[in-house]
């Protein structure tokens, strides 16, 4: 049991750590942010980059097994990481809407999260192609 737990935490820690950072950042009340005129679209770029990194790191611990796995398993790994990241993005937007004072959940932020997720999964798949 201990070796299984060690194996899981070793492979998952980059994604879990990134997920915790995202949760903390999205849980900060709106009153903690300075009142400045935002640059149009930078919020969406930040969301996309944040979730691209998150999706990439969710897969990072599995990069060695990804390279040697059969095509069907590789696709399942990518789909699972994308699913987890997109659901997490939806969760954080709902959390902001209902639980964080001064913050609102935004469908466009969620779409930026999903787009970033696809970018992160795509970058991972590109850089960790199957070994021949």
Structure in words:
The chain has 132 residues and is mostly helical. The protein has one domain. It contains five helices and no strands. The protein has helices spanning 2-26, 42-60, 63-68, 71-99, 107-127. Helix 1 runs antiparallel to helix 2 and helix 2 (42-60) packs across helix 5. The N and C termini lie far apart (34 Å). The mean pLDDT is 87.
Total DSSP E strands: 0
Task: Give the number of helices.
Answer: 5
Shape: elongated
Rounded mean pLDDT score: 87
Low-confidence runs of at least 5 consecutive residues: none
> Radius of gyration, Cα only, in angstroms?
16 Å
Topology:
Elements: H1 2-26, H2 42-60, H3 63-68, H4 71-99, H5 107-127
Helix pairs in contact: 1-2, 1-4, 2-4, 2-5, 4-5
Name the descriptors:
132 residues; mainly alpha; 5 helices; 76% helix; elongated
What is the compact description of this entry?
It contains five helices and no strands. It is mainly alpha-helical and 132 residues long.
């Amino acid at each position: 049991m201990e070796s299984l737990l060690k194996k899981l935490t070793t492979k998952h820690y980059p994604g879990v750590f990134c997920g915790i950072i995202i949760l903390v950042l999205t849980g900060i009340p709106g009153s903690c942010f300075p009142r400045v005129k935002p640059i149009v679209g930078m919020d969406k770029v930040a969301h996309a980059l944040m979730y691209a990194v998150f999706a990439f790191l969710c897969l990072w611990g599995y990069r060695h097994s990804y390279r040697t796995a059969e095509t069907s398993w590789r696709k399942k790994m990518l789909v699972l990481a994308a699913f987890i990241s997109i659901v997490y993005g939806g969760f954080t937007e709902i959390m902001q809407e209902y639980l964080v004072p001064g913050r609102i959940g935004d469908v466009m932020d969620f779409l930026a999260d999903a787009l970033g997720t696809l970018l992160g999964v795509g970058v991972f798949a590109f850089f960790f192609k199957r070994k021949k």
